[in-house]
Structure formats: structure tokens, C-alpha cells
Inverse folding.
């Protein structure tokens, strides 16, 4: 029977840490499977369904990044976060750009992690429309695709789609950077801010295909997704 908050696959080669995490997460309402390596994790993944993956970056043989790249090819909608002792800016940005929903640095508070995972699980189970229209653009949540009026489509990462949907749900409203970061990713630190800037840049490039929608920077405040509603017919 799956736990109240779903099924987690933990990829961690530190047996003691894994054992502690399994105990805590089980008590918090999760069902947890544990793999010692990326290779073992792939075998687990191919035979079971998991709501959340917790992936240590430093693994024997294939590392956590390689594991996630492989899993993303099997399921681009998979929800996952990285667990690591590495503090490198390059590593953190790489994890975020791979679509990681969070980046947990060791040492960490297990209770805080458990509560964060519960919030992720609740967020996943929230019923959301499969398609969202904004101006001459269609967002498809299941396909993670953005379709434009010229019938061209762009598939984006789950993290990028979250930003697209957030902006599309608040057209013509000035959104503060901190508001966006906290609403989507629960923090507003430097690394997430950099990722937000990268995603905004990508969205701007894609919006060149739209006749009615553009994103503008509000100096020292944030962004606004402008939609010329009067011309959308």
C-alpha cells in the first residue's frame, strides 16, 4: 500500500544516512524504496511508479546527474530533487537546469526536508487544467509544450513550465522576483534567482513567435507578462 503522501525512490550510497531518511520519511507518511547506485535506481524505476525521486549527486559509477538525465528521457514529468554535500555553484546550476525541483545540501534538517516533501506531494496532487490559453498561445501541462498560433510547438522542462503557467495565470500584473521564486520554488536565493533569469530569457525568445504576448522587465521589481487582449481574435 502506498503511503499517504506517495512513493519516494531514494538514490543514496550512504547506508546510514539512507536508513535515517527512510525512518523519518516513513513516519511522515511516505513509502520509501532505496537504491545504492544509479544503476540499481534505474532497475527500481522501470518496475515501479514513484511520486518523488531523491537523488544524491555523488554516486559510484554513474553520478546523480547522469541518472536524472536518463530518467528524464523515460519520463519528462518526473518530480525529483538533488541531495548532496557539494556546494559548487556550477553543480547547483546544473541540477536546476536539468529540471530539479529542489537542491538539498548536506547537512540538512530531516524534519524540514520531510515537510518540504509533503508540500511537494500536495502540490502534485492538486487538480490543474491540462491546457491553459493565453493570447495566441496554448500551454499543455501533460505534454509540457507551448504551442503558438503558427502551429509550432516548444517542449520545455517541468521547471520551465511551472514558470510559464505561473506567468500565464497572472497576465498584465507586475510580479516581484521574490514573489515568483517563493511561489514556485520555495526560496529566493542567488542560485534560484539566476535560474529565473535564464528561464525568463528563454521565454522571451519563444515569445517572438507570438503576436499578442510579451514579457517585460519592471526595473528593480520583477516582470510582467503583457497580453494585448483587444487584438486577440
Amino acid at each position: 500500500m502506498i503511503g499517504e503522501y506517495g512513493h519516494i525512490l531514494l538514490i543514496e550510497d550512504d547506508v546510514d544516512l539512507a536508513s535515517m531518511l527512510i525512518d523519518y520519511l516513513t513516519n511522515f507518511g511516505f513509502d520509501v524504496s532505496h537504491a545504492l547506485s544509479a544503476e540499481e535506481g534505474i532497475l527500481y524505476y522501470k518496475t515501479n511508479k514513484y511520486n518523488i525521486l531523491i537523488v544524491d549527486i555523488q554516486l559510484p559509477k554513474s553520478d546523480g546527474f547522469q541518472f536524472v538525465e536518463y530518467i528524464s528521457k523515460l519520463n519528462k514529468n518526473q518530480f525529483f530533487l538533488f541531495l548532496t554535500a557539494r556546494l559548487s555553484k556550477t553543480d547547483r546550476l546544473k541540477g536546476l537546469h536539468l529540471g530539479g525541483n529542489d537542491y538539498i545540501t548536506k547537512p540538512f534538517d530531516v524534519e524540514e526536508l520531510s515537510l518540504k516533501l509533503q508540500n511537494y506531494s500536495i502540490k502534485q496532487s492538486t487538480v490543474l487544467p491540462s491546457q491553459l490559453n493565453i493570447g495566441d498561445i496554448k500551454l499543455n501541462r501533460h505534454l509540457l509544450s507551448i504551442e503558438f498560433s503558427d502551429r509550432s510547438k516548444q517542449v520545455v522542462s517541468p521547471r520551465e513550465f511551472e514558470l510559464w503557467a505561473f506567468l500565464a495565470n497572472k497576465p498584465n500584473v507586475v510580479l516581484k522576483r521574490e514573489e515568483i521564486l517563493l511561489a514556485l520554488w520555495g526560496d529566493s536565493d542567488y542560485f534560484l534567482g539566476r535560474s529565473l533569469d535564464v528561464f525568463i530569457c528563454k521565454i522571451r525568445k519563444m515569445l517572438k513567435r507570438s503576436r499578442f504576448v510579451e514579457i517585460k522587465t519592471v526595473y528593480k521589481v520583477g516582470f510582467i507578462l503583457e497580453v494585448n487582449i483587444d487584438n486577440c481574435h
